[in-house]
Each structure stands twice: as C-alpha cells, then as structure tokens.
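Annex B, item 7. Sequence and structure tokens for protein A, then protein B.
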Amino acid sequence: MEKLLFVCSRNKRRSLTAETIYRDNTVYDVKSCGTNTGARVKITAGLIGWADKIIFMEKRHKELASKSFGDSLAKKQIYVLNIKDVYEYLDSKLVDKLKLKMADLNLII
C-alpha cells in the first residue's frame, strides 16, 4: 500500500481534511502534518521517510519543508495542489477541490 503525506500550514484544515476523506481508501495509507511551529502534527524527518508521495497544499509549504528536509524530499514524489488557506475543515468546497486535484494527478481513483 502506497503512503501519502498531506502537508499544509497548521494541519487543522486542508491537510487534515485530505487525511480524513482518504483515510479509509484501500489503495493508500494516508497521514497529514503542517509546516508551522504550532501545527497539530508538525512535519518531521520521520513522516517524510514514512511517505512514498508527499502532497503539499501550496508551493510555500514545499519550500519550507525543503529548507529542513531537502535531501529526504529529493528522493520522494512531490506534488503541489495549489489550494489556498480559505476553507474550513471538511468544507464541502475544499473536499470537492481536493478530490478534483487528486484525480487530475491520477492519485485517487
């Protein structure tokens, strides 16, 4: 089973929503985290090592992670969804956008 790691800023809305909606998926094992110091679950080398594919909500999340974990990230398949932080947790528009962008990347069937 492939492992997906979703990353946003605080791991309270976007990445947590992605983890929630895909947690029962039979193709992928999913986790989520955030780049900010006060994130619910903070990104770590261990989480990066665990993941096969890392999906960042914005380019700046990838850039922040690259500063601390550049070598580890270089060995991973990286995706950026370009989903801004304008949604609440499990917002139906966020769910729809996540599903559409994941389908566009052929990540979720």
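Protein B:
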Amino acid sequence: MSAAPAVTTRAAGMLLIHGAWQGSWAWDAWLPEMTARGWTCNAVDLPGNGANPERDAGVEITLQTYVDALSEAINAFDGPVVVVAHSGAGVPASQLAETLPERVACLIYVAGMMLPAGMGYAELVDASAADVPNAAGIAPYLQWRDNGTTTAVPAAAALDIFLHDCPHEAAGQAAAKLTPQRESGRALVTTLSAARFGRIPRIYVEALRDRSVLLPLQRKMQALVPGALVRSIDCGHVPQLARPAELATLVCDALAEIGIGIGGDGDTPASRPPR
C-alpha cells in the first residue's frame, strides 16, 4: 500500500457558493457527506438571490457586491478555506481568490465557470456556438423580466437542463426553489493576476453529461486557464444533488492529492465517511 500524500496546507473549512438562480439550499444534499468526512462547511446566499430581501433592498448587484459578501463569509473562518463554486459561482470565486489569496487554500470549480481575466461566459458561448451544438445551455429557455434586467428559469427547463439525472422528488423541489436572478449578477468579468489568483491551487470537477455548461465548454475553460487538477464525474450539471457521495469522495481525494487537509489533528483529510 502506498503512503498517503503529505499534507502541506491545513484548511479551516469549506465555503460553498451556489450558482445563478439558486441559494445556499443547493448544497443541502452534499453537506452531510462533507460533514461525515470531517469538513466544516458554510453554504452562503449571494446577495440578490431572494434569501434576504431586507439585506439586499436597493443594493446594486455587481461582481464587487459578491466579493464583499464572500469576503465577510470567508473571514468567519479561522484560517484559509477551500472555496467550492458551482456553475456561475466560479466567476466570483475566482475574483475572491484574487482579492484574498492568503485566505483561499484551494479553488474547486464544480461544472464551474473558470474563465480567464476579461472574458465573460457569454463571450465563450458565442465563440463556441459554431462547433458546439446547444452551447447556449439554459439561455434559450430563460424568461426575461423587469425590462430585461432579471431572468427566471421555468421549472420544466430546469428539470430538463439542470436536473435531468437527479432523484425525481429532489429535482422537483430544487426546480421549485429557483429564484429570479438579476442579470447584473450574471454578466460578470474578472480582473485576475498570476501573482494572486494564479498562485492558488485549483481543482476542476467536470460533469460529463452537463446540458447547461456543456463538456466542450468546460474543457475550453480548462485550456484557457490551465493548471487545475481535473477530475470527472459522470452526471449532469448538479453533481452535488445527482451524486453527492461520489462528489464528496472525489473532492476529498483530489484535495489529498494536492496536499490539502482539514485543520486540526490528523494527517490527511478523510476521503470516506467514518464507519
């Protein structure tokens, strides 16, 4: 039996960031898996997602709005954390790492938007449309509201594009929880540097059956922002709901491979729940 990889960085916990039209609830099926493996996790609600109307009243939703909220969340941990970003959350997660590189032990993109500085996801889709069928993903199904400033996802489209391989009852519940998204919170472009963002270890979990961020687009982003440890999971756009235990093991094993462990006692992060 080979020796376990040495831990070079101890993480105080995980910060979980949901994608567009979602909330902290998007991680509910995954949290018990990570807790069983010893991780302390905080799943946040991004500003403007409907979870805290009083907090968000009159607030302009920008990339900086997200980074400010995530900075507050990350500072609640006593030490660097692993930042896990699903889908569109990849953009604010990257900018968070640029802003607070000393507080981010690792970035994990789950079917996420790992884009280079200055590029928006719509630009990537437009550039790929000729050779990637259905590259637009959910976009053709969106309902535009409030004079084009907000979008919403119809439940039927969510079930077909996001949740097609998730457990039936859980998929229905997730589709019903989706909330309108301000477009200013989706059309985001980062400003990144090699000295700050570029020094953070990254893991990319590609979803092989994704109908939203299609696999060819995931792989184009990996090529545009090279250096991530890439792992694959055979499911659609929401691995944390479709295959939570498999995703948890995959993530923990990948962290162990790059030498990131749980803060506190012990030699390595667990890859399996205690028996």
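Comment on protein B: Residues 209 and 236 are 4 Å apart (CA to CA).
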